[in-house]
TrEMBL record, chains A, B:
PROSITE patterns: PYR_CT. This is Hydroxymethylglutaryl-CoA lyase. GO terms for molecular function: lyase activity. Keywords: Lyase, Metal-binding. PANTHER family: HYDROXYMETHYLGLUTARYL-COA LYASE. The keyword Metal-binding applies.
């Protein structure tokens, strides 16, 4: 395991991924409290809300209220997700930390269903947004490939196609004189397995050895931690994750349904392997228990129940 | 990932690990039904009950009743766990498939607390049982090292100590003219992480390259699937697991508490990686849902909610 990173960076998405999917209602003040608790754990980046159509995602209708009510720490980036120019403009009106990003997808069908545009059309649309960012000195935070491993509409996504889409995305960005600081590969609907993660990471590394990569994993079928391990074995040092494993599958009945990879479980595994995370595991477990209280049903995170090993080591 | 096994063997322990820990009561007939459902999934080895003191483990007081009521398939081994000579004699009175095995522990304190004897005393006691097996033509199925990675009483267990204990166990068995067909390493209380698994497997492989190894993993802190992946990367082809992730931690409040590694999640990951398991994933997911019904609370398995990928692939 010689390629393990010395330290990982965690992009916490629990408030956005989690509260977006919950039938709710969860009071805006409780969302804010959860975000503020997370900010006390050593996390440095927290995605708080999404600026999407409130008619499509009613649980995010209070995005501006939540964003405005957070007492921000100086050492934490509080961000919001946006999917189109209108969303970006909304984000920019809030006190959240807002940067540009670009998006492609392994699956045209997913792109169509999620954004109403296939990959090609989506890139064209993003050109205007990218131009706006350049003109307004808004830096580019990175890029993401959604459904990079598989898609419920198109099935398996071969690594060769993802490599093509990445090449297209890098060209697109370079066309604006920009470079991607990082590219995140998203297993949007839980198709990845350790072998497919290794195959894709290997293919990308072969072609772009210097491109920094991150992983956005879902634990829909229990493979997220093993997939993350493969990432670590490839030296990947950036992971999106959700406290308590918030997120999950809307059609799964919400009984501990699998969501994003669980922040504190991932951080625990890393710390046990000697990889720094910068987070306080006990404080994160406390946040996870609070998240369960808020949503009113069990969440899949394990560490909040199993506890860290500290108390057994210091006997 | 060149050392991956072509096929894995699963030792299902859900009925024993799970129903042992549940506050119950679960009717004997329901336990039997669950065991019989599991036997229809392609599993070839199912640990059904434990022959332990019913005053210490009241939920196993019906062990003989359950063992006697199972309609056995010819191609499945139905087994029971026993921890001492009295337990072995009870097992032999039932229609279950009963073989000898030997046990050591990374932790003397755990051995004392679990069996009332330290490792040395435990080996002495097992001598009589081994002799009995030899005289009665009862084959030796293998050996197990409990708390091979850590122990809540002794803390971290270094690989060097486990190697010493294994050497002692192999000597002990050879003293009776026997050999271990397999040695299972148990992460009894959820201390293992991918690095410690790799360290221990590497140390054992260095010393005994021909010794067949198995893993018995718990998912107390979310690392079980990643730990299993490391096992697979070392070519390990034998895993103990529990349908639905049954088992779990008695002090965890039973709300989706982490138990053994989940059979169908592990099998799913293997099948997706091209490793044969011989099991029907959909049938196992059905068993997992039935297990949830029996225990009356959510269990941690993911595949039973996420579903296999088959339906998306065959569209």
């Amino acid at each position: 395991m010689s390629d393990l990173p010395r330290r990982i960076h965690i992009h916490e998405e629990g408030p956005r991924e989690g509260f977006q999917i919950e039938p709710g209602p969860i009071a805006s003040a409780d969302k804010v409290r959860f975000i503020q608790m997370l900010a006390e754990t050593g996390l440095t980046e927290i995605q708080c809300v999404s600026f999407v159509n409130p008619r499509r995602v009613p649980t995010m209708a209070d995005a501006e209220d939540v964003a405005g009510a957070i007492h921000q720490r100086d050492d934490v980036h509080y961000t919001g997700l946006w999917l189109n120019h209108r969303g970006l403009l909304r984000a920019l009106q809030t006190p959240l930390h807002t940067e540009g990003y670009v998006r492609t997808s392994g699956s045209d069908a997913f792109s169509l269903s999620n954004n109403g545009r296939n990959v090609e059309e989506s890139l064209q649309e993003q050109g205007a947004t990218l131009q706006y960012c350049i003109e307004n000195n808004i830096p580019l935070s990175g890029g993401i490939v959604t459904t990079a491993f598989g898609c419920n509409l198109e099935g398996e996504i071969p690594a060769t196609r993802v490599v093509e889409r990445i090449a297209q995305l890098l060209d697109f960005v370079e066309g604006y004189g920009l470079q991607l600081p990082i590219l995140r590969l998203a297993d949007t609907v839980g198709w990845a397995n350790p072998k497919s993660v290794a195959t894709l990471l290997g293919a990308i590394r072969d072609k772009w050895p210097e491109l920094r990569l991150g992983l956005h994993l879902h634990d829909t079928r229990g493979t997220a931690m093993a997939n993350a391990l493969v990432g670590l074995q490839f030296g990947i040092d950036t992971f999106d994750s959700s406290c308590a494993g918030l997120g999950g599958c809307p059609f799964a009945g919400h009984k501990g349904a699998a969501g994003n990879i669980c922040t504190e479980d991932l951080a625990f595994m890393c710390e046990e392997m000697g990889i720094e995370t910068g987070v306080d595991l006990d404080a994160l477990a406390e946040c996870a228990r609070y998240a369960e209280e808020l949503v009113g049903h069990p969440l899949p995170g394990k560490l909040m129940r199993g506890g860290t090993l500290t108390r057994w080591r210091t006997q």
